[in-house]
Write a structure and sequence with these properties.
CATH topology of the largest domain: Peroxisomal Thiolase, Chain A, domain 1
Structural class: alpha/beta
CATH architecture of the largest domain: 3-Layer(aba) Sandwich
CATH superfamily of the largest domain: Thiolase/Chalcone synthase
Helix content: 25-40%
Number of strands: 13
Order of helices and strands: EEHHEHEHEHEHEEEHEHEHHHEE
Strand content: 15-25%
Number of domains: 2
Number of helices: 11
Bound molecules: oxa(dethia)-CoA
Length: about 325
């Protein structure tokens, strides 16, 4: 009898403040119409000073634990997928572990940009298939607004802050995670990058002068790569499970651009109702976008028993991946 990993609780948390496209019209040379038509974004949540990455992550975790009926002290492992940690050390996962009082849990951060949550799910799945009694918290949490150049219209309209979390455990039942596939291509890393604030460029003055603390993106190139990679990893997942497009009940993709989601849906032959979209409310929240979407779908009652869900993501690195599951 094989062991499957199941999600037994979901949670998400957004900052208090909303910034609309209209608000951005006053900051850079852009329009609400351009942002909506080119990206699908209407607004995004932006963290205030006290809303750190670990704060958002902890709030989302509490909601997921609450739904799962799992006490923090019963968690075995906490994985936080993020590229915008509070600080290099300690990790966000350790800050969350302390806040929750998850005394016996191991904790580490995982950096795979916008694909980070699916990388985290995949790692957790391996642990649980070894020991089905384990309880693992996987969080995707980002404060991208603090790595955004608010004078660069080509990027500042895209990103938002937020966190989403899931609690995982094992079951002998025929449901849960069915497959995961992870990919990367470091040769294209320059197309989407934050150059500074690592150890390669230790001079802070140089970083600030060159604006290397901010996200830089060759949008059009990234767009093309994203569509291609997402389509290929989706077909890979379908093939691994003996599915056709018709077998997918719900596609939850990383929310980077509504045009990417629509193109992907078309190429997989999915009807519009099968494509989960919430980018209009949150913008691109990187590693947080899929767990936020999962929580939203779950709390709306969309995730009914037996539903075939395909999760796909693509991001800087490049990284991309998929997780297929039966709810
Ligand atoms: O999350 C990780 C993965 N990320 C992605 O997958 C993002 C992928 N890329 C995209 O979503 C899109 O490329 C963007 C939304 C970033 C840009 O859309 P685009 O249709 O590719 O626009 P573009 O970069 O080709 O720019 C078209 C025009 C340019 O003007 P010209 O040169 O045609 O005169 C830009 O300067 O739009 C201009 N532009 C803007 N205009 C108004 C760029 N940003 C803005 C803006 N407002 N905010």
């Amino acid at each position: 009898m094989s062991i499957h990993t199941i999600i037994i609780g979901t949670g998400s948390h957004l900052p208090d403040s909303v910034v609309t496209n209209k608000d951005l019209e006053g900051r850079v040379n852009t329009t609400d119409e351009w942002i909506r038509s080119r990206t699908g974004i209407h607004q995004r949540y932006i963290a205030n000073d006290h809303e750190t990455n670990s704060y958002l992550a902890t709030q989302s975790a509490r909601k997921a634990l609450d739904m799962a009926g799992v006490r923090p002290q019963d968690l075995d492992l906490i994985i936080v997928s993020t590229m915008t940690p509070d600080m290099p050390m300690p990790s966000v996962a350790c800050l969350v572990q302390n806040e929750l009082g998850a005394k016996k849990a191991g904790a580490f951060d995982l950096q795979a940009t916008c694909s980070g949550f699916l990388y985290g799910l995949s790692v957790a799945d391996k642990f649980i298939r070894d020991n089905r009694r384990m309880k693992i918290l996987v969080i995707g949490s980002e404060v991208l607004s603090r790595r955004t150049n608010w004078e660069d219209r080509s990027t500042c309209v895209l990103f938002g802050d937020g966190a989403g979390a899931v609690v995982l455990t094992g079951t002998k039942e025929d449901r849960g995670i069915l497959s995961s596939h992870l990919h990367a291509d470091g040769s294209l890393g320059d197309l989407l990058t934050i150059r500074g604030l690592g150890t390669a460029h230790p001079e802070l003055s140089e970083i600030l002068e060159k604006g290397w603390q901010y996200i830089e993106m060759q949008g059009r190139e990234v767009f093309k790569c994203a569509v291609k990679a997402l389509e290929s990893v989706a077909w890979e997942a379908l093939e691994a499970n003996g599915w056709t497009g018709d077998d997918v009940d719900l596609l939850i993709s990383h929310q980077a651009n509504i045009r990417i989601l629509n193109l992907l849906g078309e190429r997989l032959g999915l009807s519009k109702e099968k494509i989960f979209i919430n980018i209009h409310k949150y913008g691109n929240t990187s590693a947080a976008s899929i767990p936020i979407a999962l929580d939203e779908a779950n709390r709306k009652g969309i995730l009914v028993s037996g539903l075939h869900i395909l999760l796909v993501a693509f991001g800087g690195g490049f990284t991309w991946g998929s997780v297929a599951m039966r709810w």
